[in-house]
Amino acid sequence: MRELRDDEVLETATATQSGIALRRANFRTLTEALDYAAQGRTGFNFYNGRGDLACALGYRELREKAIQVARRLQAFGRGSRVGLVAHTHPDFAVMFFACQYAGLVPVPLAATIHLGGRSAYIRHLRELIRDCGAVAAFAPPDFVGLLHEAAGELPVGRVGTLDDFMALPALEALPGPPAIHELAYLQYTSGSTRFPRGTMITQSAAMANLEGIFNHGFEIAADDRFCSWLPFYHDMGLVGIVLGCVATQRSVDFLGTRDFAMRPRLWLKLISQNRSTISFSPPFGYALAARRVRLKDAEGIDLSSWRIAGVGAEMIHPEWLVNFAQTLASARFNPRAFLPCYGMAECSLAVSFAPVGAGFDVDFVDSERLAQHNEAVAAPSAGAERRRSGFVNCGKALPGYEVEVRDEAGRTLPDRHCGRIYLRGASVMSGYFGNSEASREVLSEDGWLYTGDLGYRVGESLYLTGRAKDLLIINGRNIWPQDIEHLAEQQPQLRATDTSAFSVPGGEGGEAAVLVVQCRETDATELDLLAERLRQAVYAEFGIECRVDVVPPHTLPGTSSGKLSRSSARKQFLERHGVTRAADLVWAKRGFACRSTAGPVQPSASGHGPLSEPARSIGASMA
Amino acid sequence: MRDRATVAKAIREALDVVRDDGAPIDPEGELGLDSTQAMELIMEIEERLDVSIPVETLADARTFDQLCAGILRLDS
After folding, report:
1. Minimum mean pLDDT range among A96-100, A269-273, A617-621
2. Which residue of A216, A266, A324, A565 is 20 to 30 Å from A179, comparing CA positions?
3. At A309, is the secondary structure helix, strand, or coil?
4. What is the spatial distance between Cα A158 and Cα A553, in angstroms, rounded to a whole number?
């Protein structure tokens, strides 16, 4: 088995044309999809941090290797889980499909580490491996040391690289192919590190979604070619690209997520040189590329082949897309290629797509009516006395989905009324692995999934307005407030009801994390130290800057059930500081820690001004 | 073979590019960069020293000194 080396450069990537008849994901299982793709000439191509081709893995070779490994995996027992550190690497693809042929359930594990984040990452890996009860765990060479450390005391039968798994004894016969009701994979939602939730996706759910995407989301063509830097441990990267390309026999050029984050121009360079037609990114990826690509980088880049520039995975800020399109206009990027979509791991991947070739379409509504009455009343023009909010059309749901927008009492709402989005359909998960309580919270007995998202409909079109759940999305990464709060409660001065974490609007449409803690301590120095300790603890654990606000006891608002209300705490925080977004906060000293007294914090006498716009906070975290 | 002074200088220069506040560098304090800045920093260091910094080195580098030591270990 070959290993990627930095200095290794291959001559040719796999062809764009497969040489076999195009099949648009109409297979019953993932192994059937790969069996078919292996008859053609297409495949996966991996590029290194300099943008050179490091490994071309045709589907024929992928299938052969996967079957070889599968012979060595089947002894672990049908249906057992195998953790796979999902670094962008050919061996991940081999292991993933080996699990398919062996009747095992692959579980992609995050491959993201921040500076100095070793212990946080090890803990996270360990939590996931324990949660899914993995019988074996794989990592590519770069990550295997970390994986060994994480799996150390757990009852995992085998931990290692692809070579280590190849060293196991091989059985002659393969087990029977996966049945449609068997699990295709577990996908952990990029959620709480303390309460991991692995969505169970069956073969039929995954295939139903893929068939919907490539026939009705956008119709895939025989000359389409993908380019992607999306992480393999996110639904969009794993399902949409890795599985989607196999299921449609498309070639794809992969750039590592970390390599993209370091050198975003490589993404555009690969699209240009390989004449790629399809590439997806969350909005922040477009923002990062627009910010970091210099004018001279755009020279010699031709993006005119790019017909589907998918946008999804988080709230879409139209100005980020406009900015990207303007920056890359000279590189012949077509703004009509933008294709907004909506989805989540709980539905395999995709729910809805905007119309192809139309770019993004913004619906402007009266902000006041929306805030006060949850009504999305069209406001075609802005008036001096009327503020309006714009929401991107995420299009109509794929065939087979039922969509409902409901109010808090569960009543179905009419058009242009904002509420909670519910879904039902063939690609919805079977539940969260080993967690029937969490499953019941979101999945009703008659199959309706509560998405946790807020939005409204106009005709068949879906518009997302926000999240009902308290999730923070910082730099494109999901962080659960209870994880930050739990961390804060480790401080001796704080109890469980003394902390509240939430996000507030940051700069340029991003979010900023805020932690409010209430404390009996009155000594100013002690309070400053506490705030600084908390800020450092959050940074060490999550790699994000968090504004820490220390307030007197009984400041945090509760709910009728005695729980703290994060939305009220957020509202109170902004009012207390007299701002609407984090970028406008004025802090008592350098850094983000601040201590509240009564009323808005005044600029300190030493003359430190407002915090500069955290323009950098929008970028990629999926490194 | 790189010496400590060369590596330290490269990190300092990279930090200057990435951070815009010009604050003094505390060798033993956390680098305090957000994820995007961290990636930009690594890119700047890699280009200055012509190295590829592996993920394990990043995982252990909370402070300036730790990052410096980690990069020096790559040579050995």
Report:
1. A617-621
2. A216
3. strand
4. 50
Question: Which two three-digit tokens encode residue A329?
Answer: 């206009």
Question: CB of A590 within 8 Å of any CB in chain B?
Answer: yes
CA distances from A33 to A101, A103, A182 (A): 12, 15, 16
Model confidence pLDDT, tens digit, residues A499-515: 999 988 876 667 889 99
pLDDT for position A463: 95
DSSP for A39-63, written as a single string = TSS-EEEEE-TTS-EEEEEEHHHHH
Predicted confidence at residue A383, as pLDDT, reads 67
Question: Are B20 and A617 within 8 A, CB to CB?
Answer: no
pLDDT above 70: percentage of residues in chain A: 88
Identity of residue A421? I
The average pLDDT across A217-231 equals 97
Probe site for chain A from B26, B30, B31, B39 (most A CB atoms < 10 A):
B39
Q: How far apart are CA A498 and CA A519, in angstroms?
A: 7
CATH code (residue B61): 1.10.1200.10
| pTM for the predicted model, two decimal places | 0.85
Task: Give the total number of structural domains in chain B.
Answer: 1
| Alpha carbons B8 and A613: distance in angstroms, whole number | 29
Is B62's CB within 8 Å of A145's CB?
no
CA–CA dist A426, A405 (Å, integer): 19
pLDDT of residue A1 exceeding 90, the answer is no
Written as one letter, the residue type at A34 is L
Quote the pLDDT of residue A487. Answer: 87
* Residues of chain A contacting residue B23, judged by C-beta atoms under 8 Å apart: 590
Alpha-carbon distances of A128 from A233, A237, A417, rounded to whole Å: 12, 19, 38
A579-592: pLDDT as tens digits: 777 766 655 333 44
User: How many Å apart are CA A292 and CA A295, to the nearest integer?
Assistant: 10
- Strand boundaries in A37-162, DSSP class E: 43-47, 53-58, 81-85, 105-109, 136-138, 158-160
Which DSSP state fits A14? P
Give the DSSP H or E segment for A320: helix A318-327
The structure tokens 């969350």 sit at: A282
Chain A's closest residue to B29, CA to CA, is: A536
**Dihedrals phi, psi of A576, to nearest 5 degrees:** -60, -35
Determine the structural domain holding residue B31 and report its residue range: 4-73
Strand segments, DSSP code E, in A178-325 are 183-188, 198-202, 226-228, 252-255, 278-281, 308-311
Which positions ≥6 away from A540 have C-beta within 8 Å? A116, A117, A119, A120, B30, B62
Contacts of residue A117 in chain B, CB cutoff 8 Å? 58-59
In chain A, the percentage of residues whose pLDDT exceeds 90 is 63
